[in-house]
Amino acid sequence: MGLFNFMKKQLLKVIEWEDKTKDTVVYRYPLTDRDEIMNSSTLIVRPSQCAIFVHKGQVADIFGPGTYKLATENIPFLTKLLSLPTGFNSPIKAEIYYVNTKQFTAQKWGTQNPIMLRDADFGNVRIRGFGVYAYKVDEPRKFMEEMFGTNQVYTCQDINEQCKPLIIQGVTDAIAESKISALDLAANYKEFSQTIQEVTQPEFNKYGLKLTSIVIENLSLPEEVEKALDERTKLGVMEDKMGTYTQYKMANAVEEAAKNPNGNSLAGLGVGLGAGATLSQVFQNNLSTENKEKTKSTNYIECTKCGAKIKEGAKFCPECGQKQGSVCPKCGTTVKANAKFCPECGENLKKATKCPKCDAEVTPGAKFCPECGQNLEK
Length: 378
Description:
This protein is an alpha+beta fold. Helix content is 34%, strand content 27%. It has helices at residues 2-8, 76-82, 140-148, 156-178, 189-205, 223-238, 242-259, 265-295; strands at 10-15, 24-28, 35-45, 49-55, 58-63, 66-69, 95-100, 104-110, 115-119, 123-137, 153-155, 209-220, 300-302, 309-311, 326-327, 334-335, 353-354, 361-362. The strands form 6 sheets. It has a 5-stranded antiparallel beta sheet. Strands 8, 9, 10 and 12 form a 4-stranded antiparallel beta sheet that branches. The chain has a 3-stranded mixed beta sheet with strand order 1-3-6, with no helix packed on it. It is elongated, with a radius of gyration of 46 Å. It starts with a helix and ends in a 16-residue tail after the last strand.
């Protein structure tokens, strides 16, 4: 009777897992009470997979991609645990876990609550963001011990529940510490992604995972801030063209009034003519202002030394550097260049004076004699 029951047991010859899903990270091979592993059974581990043997709660061995004949020589840890004097000829019981080691891409992240940012332009603002990231199992033993344990199936959704908060934490730290203006965030998405990956990777290492990439798709301001930003942009565009903008709006008003939805063409014409007259006056005023600005000219005088034309009121000549203006020889008051009389004492500034050394005539207010160079201020 015992021999008959033993024949009923299923002696596994081939152990393999064909993954037909896109999000299964761990799959426990289904073993029933009748399934037993025999010496010379075949273990198949496909690319981007690894197989973990667990016996009595302990990890016996980990197999990478390949095909294995289960024998004493290629699973020494399992043999040691069993301590089988028969050399692994008797059927044994063990749990087999297949772990996907490929990259799991397009995992979405997003901020449930806005990130507070102190901005130089807008003050304290709230920012939301979203994007995608990718990861893979880097250390299967640690991953099993820290995350999936002995679950039958472990999916990306299970991992994301733990990983998303780590991503959000990295995003918040990177943005807050950068102190970059909200208007310049879009120009630094790539730099932010690199920083977030570097900051978050040590947290992923604790679970035997590797964060292979993270992408920021969008960082957005609150709707009311975006509207205010749009208004500021409009004002910046129209700042120097308010006259043109006003004329444009009035022209539209004339067109709408002329259409007159009540059908009274005379009333519409009257409104159109009245608005047209006002618009014409605006055009004339603008044109007059422009003409005044164009015809407005600056008065020029000649330099007292080199004769170059300089702006009236200039203190120095831009050509020779000569200080402009004269000094009254009688009272010492500074007077405008080419002034005929002193505004303080009434001295005639155009009468000629003579050099005390060579008796040559010199210009009133001159500091040196043009003939002999005598200092006239002594």
